[in-house]
Design goal:
Elements (H helix, E strand, L loop, with lengths): L10 H10 L24 E7 L17 H9 L1 E3 L2 E2 L4 H10 L38 H7 L3 E7 L17 E5 L22 E3 L2 E3 L7 H14 L8 E6 L11 H6 L8 H14 L23 H34 L6 E7 L8 H6 L7 H11 L19 H8 L12 H4 L3 E4 L7 E3 L3 E2 L3 H8 L11 H4 L12 H4 L13 E5 L2 E6 L2 E7 L12 E7 L15 H18 L10
Parallel strand pairs: 1-8, 1-9, 2-11, 3-12, 4-5, 4-8
Antiparallel strand pairs: 2-10, 5-6, 6-7, 9-10, 13-14, 14-15, 15-16
Helix pairs in contact: 1-2, 5-8, 7-11
Length: 586
């Protein structure tokens, strides 16, 4: 991957961007509001859009073939962030997104539903599994500054009243409290589902409209919220957190049919075609290798029936992404009709890499509160020889698409959701809007925790953030912290992190740390089975500049670089209270 100042524009995408007229010209005025103008009615709105388990190459603007014209147009008009890092899983990423802090420091060192699987983490500070009530959030800061604060979609940061959006600065919210649910609302009463889905509106229990597709509902409810009280002229901060394309794979039937037959060549062919498009888009250099597509059940070893089912899985996934894009389009159309589009900063991201774990394992590790009969009911819909092609993607279907398609979705990187390799934490992201010099690709390392200070500075809620000078940090390792992107957005700088500015990640005992182009990863070997929790883990070293797919461990060849990374890791772990267990007993 690389920094590209004037990117190679893919002809199909640029024509799409023009057709959708989202203002593709770079902004001429790159000035931003200040605290002195914070009461002005002209302060920009902020629309934060989060996809759930979207792979790095799923969008057309990032090399994908799925029809996503609305998101592509936004991405091409703004800045595509090709080294944007989240965490390996849902709620820890969201905790960093909303607070600008490390997940361990705000209570999400572990996901609540996983605490039963990690007894050594129970009772430890920072591993509560919910967002600390006293933590200051981006929504609270915007609310204090007079913005209307709105949210629809997935919350996943706590179930109790004091942990919900209404206690974290959101004026209006309709959310799913859990990490996932069926996409048509049938699971809120407990079946068929893993556990009864819980929805709240403004802190009160609410009924989800049964039969309405999740992406449709969350977008339409957000439009309602944006419309309400708009006449008072106050700007808004809107957090649209889709639950798609998170498992279970479900989508409207007409959209599934739209993609029929498109994936019959299999995941390896899909990955190869995406890599070629990424090169045409200027996202990947020709000479860089991609991680091999390996699986315990390779495509050419499958029976004709197995391939048919696997192809349908991907067709449904594509339909989910397509629906998400269409619903983003609905929100954008509303902003245009109400003359708010040109004054809205839009940030898009995925919370982690694509999901590659098989559904049986997902069900097995689900909440202990899930009734056994519900687990059995769901397992029956995905058991070998019991999958109905006609029902796949419907309300009664609980399939996922497996590790092969997930590895295609995370091209050109290795691994997927749940891992600290690039495929698990490097996700598609972009930013566009007033004051941002667009039509660019930026490949410098950025973090999900940067979004809060960036948005607050762009809107004048806080003063410009003082960036560390290179004189102060050359040779000195700095522990991970949030950084405002404003110098990048205005074109004044290509990066806000130096080669000595560490980034680090830890979740479920998997670890990663980056300094400049070097990255160390602590995890299982790449050829270990995804579900094998007994497989041994070890530290490996990669040079991301020459090996972004982490194919070659160079720890033995570069011991000094590895030593620096271990120093950075130890500093990070100590500062954030990260639990590091001793050696596993035989």
């Amino acid at each position: 991957m690389r920094v590209v100042k004037k990117n190679t524009i893919y002809k199909v995408l640029i024509s799409t961007a023009i057709a959708f007229q989202v203002g593709c010209s770079p902004a001429e005025n790159t000035s931003f509001p200040t605290s002195e103008t914070v009461s002005s009615d002209k302060r920009p709105n902020v629309l934060l859009i989060v996809a759930d388990d979207l792979g790095f190459s799923d969008l057309g603007a990032f090399g994908g073939e799925i029809e996503t014209p609305n998101l592509d147009a936004l991405a091409m008009s703004g800045i595509r962030l090709t080294s944007f890092y989240a965490l390996p899983n849902c709620s820890p990423t969201r905790s960093m997104l909303l607070t600008g802090k490390d997940n361990h420091s705000v209570g999400l060192g572990v996901m609540a539903e996983a605490l039963g699987s990690f007894p050594m983490l129970q009772g430890k500070p920072g591993y509560e599994g919910y967002l600390h009530p006293e933590t200051t959030t981006i929504s609270e800061k915007f609310s204090e500054a007079g913005f209307r604060t709105l949210m629809t979609g997935k919350w996943h940061l706590g179930h109790k009243p004091e942990h919900q959006p209404s206690n974290h600065g959101f004026d209006k919210s309709f959310v799913l409290l859990q990490g996932g649910a069926d996409h048509f609302g049938y699971g809120q009463n407990g079946g068929p589902a893993l556990e009864a889905a819980t929805y709240t509106e403004d802190g009160q229990l609410a009924e989800y409209p049964v039969g309405v597709y999740s992406s449709d509902f969350y977008a339409e409810r957000m439009i309602d919220y944006i419309s309400a009280e708009a006449e008072d002229g106050a700007p808004f901060f809107a957090y649209l957190a889709f639950t798609a394309p998170h498992w279970p794979l479900q989508a409207p039937k007409d959209l599934i049919e739209k993609y029929e037959g498109r994936y019959d060549a299999g995941p390896e062919a899909l990955r190869d075609s995406r890599l070629e498009r990424m090169k045409e888009l200027g996202l990947l250099e020709d000479e860089l290798l991609s991680a091999n597509l390996t699986s315990l059940n390779a495509w050419d070893e499958m029976s004709s029936e197995e391939r048919q089912i696997a192809s349908r899985n991907m067709e449904i996934y594509a339909a989910m992404v397509d629906s998400l894009d269409q619903n983003v389009g609905k929100v954008l159309d509303h902003l245009r009709v109400t003359d708010q589009f040109d004054n809205t900063i839009i940030v898009f991201m995925s919370d982690n890499g694509a999901e590659g774990i098989d559904p049986g394992h997902l069900i097995a590790r689900s909440s202990n509160s899930t009734p056994p009969e519900h687990k059995e009911q769901v397992l029956a819909t995905i058991s070998a020889g019991n999958v109905d092609l006609e029902k796949m993607g419907s309300k009664d279907s609980f399939i996922t698409y497996g590790d092969q398609w997930a590895r295609a979705a995370t091209a050109p990187f290795r691994q997927f959701k749940g891992d600290t390799e690039e495929g698990g934490i490097r996700t598609p992201a972009f930013i566009t809007g007033p004051g941002i010099r667009g039509q660019r690709i930026v490949d410098s390392p950025l973090s999900v925790r940067d979004i809060m200070p960036t948005a607050l500075e762009l809107t004048g809620v806080v003063e410009p953030q003082e960036q560390p000078s290179k004189e102060n940090i050359d040779g000195e390792i700095l522990t991970p912290s949030e950084r405002s992107w404003v110098p990048i957005l205005t074109g004044e700088a290509e990066t806000v992190r130096s080669k000595n500015d560490a980034m680090a990640w830890e979740l479920f005992l998997k670890r990663g740390v980056r300094l400049g182009d070097w990255k160390a990863v602590y995890s299982k070997a790449a050829d270990a089975a995804p579900n094998d929790r007994r497989a041994p883990s070890s530290w490996r070293l990669y040079n991301l500049k020459t090996d972004p797919s982490e194919s070659t461990d160079v720890r033995e060849q570069h011991p000094e670089e590895f030593k620096r990374l271990m120093t950075a890791w130890e500093m990070y772990a100590k500062e954030n209270g990260v639990f590091v267990p001793g050696p596993r007993k035989p």
